[in-house]
Amino acid sequence: MKLTLFSTILLLFASFCEAGRPNLDNCDWTGSGTLEMALSRGVQPVYLRCNQGTIRWHYPQGALRIVLQSRSAGSPFSACIRRSKGSSGARIYLAGKKKLILIFNSEDPVDLVRCVTSEEGRVTLYVEADPISDLLRRTTAEFSYHLKKVSRRSNESLADECQPCSEEQLLHHYCSSDFVLQGKVTNLFHNQRLQVTELTVRISKIHRANELQKFPRISNDITETVTPSKYVILQRPLKCGTKAGSGEYLFLGKWILGNPSLDCVPRITEWKKVRRKALQEGSNQCLLNL
């Protein structure tokens, strides 16, 4: 069926209005800067309510205003962001109360991860396209996000993520972490480029480990019957100033945008005390292994 010019314009306008409506159940967003920016006077609103997802912006022009919310509406969280390989054409800002704070520019490493805290249960990002002379030049600004719940009761925030975990936090993370590994630190590398400290850990026991094949490692593959000669590389924020200690530790953490990020690193002797107390008081939330 042939469409008149007027009908075509109406269809385009209706499609744009439908795309512009806030759909708070979306995890991903894909769009083009060409038509959207022209119709929205330069800024395209994007509303996402999901724990993790990806934004792809083809032919960036103007800006995106992206509002991230967790599925638990109003709950505080931290949002970690990572630019994808090949991403170009835009800068990413955190929209603060009075100013924009630069998170990523086009020259930052694509595997760099940066995290920010929510305000009133949301994180608002402002993604601004770089000036370009060729509007038809093929560019795509792409990045992923991961939301991590923050406890109100413990007043946990990015400001104190380097502090040792309390007994309550140890028990919670032991039961909820993506991986719980026991072993010794054999090497420490402060990666300035990625702003993380990389801990090479010789594993003696696996308490839990989702997606074993994804762990960065320096020797043979880890299996469920792991031997003490197996190694993995885990990460902590560089700002924590992590130092290598002797003895055996328990490493508890989650996968954040493809990286094994540590939440708690108690000594095994400390963990055994916490475990024994929890079993005596019946405060354990899951089976606590030795």
TrEMBL record:
Residues 162-286 form the NTR domain. Residues 1-19 form the signal peptide. Gene3D superfamilies: 2.40.50.120. It comes from the Eukaryota. Its main location: secreted. GO terms for molecular function: hormone activity. It is found in: Secreted. Keywords: Disulfide bond, Secreted, Signal. GO terms for cellular component: extracellular space. InterPro entries: Meteorin-like (IPR051998), Netrin_domain (IPR001134), TIMP-like_OB-fold (IPR008993). Transmembrane segments: none annotated. Belongs to the meteorin family. This is Meteorin-like protein. The gene is X975_25214.
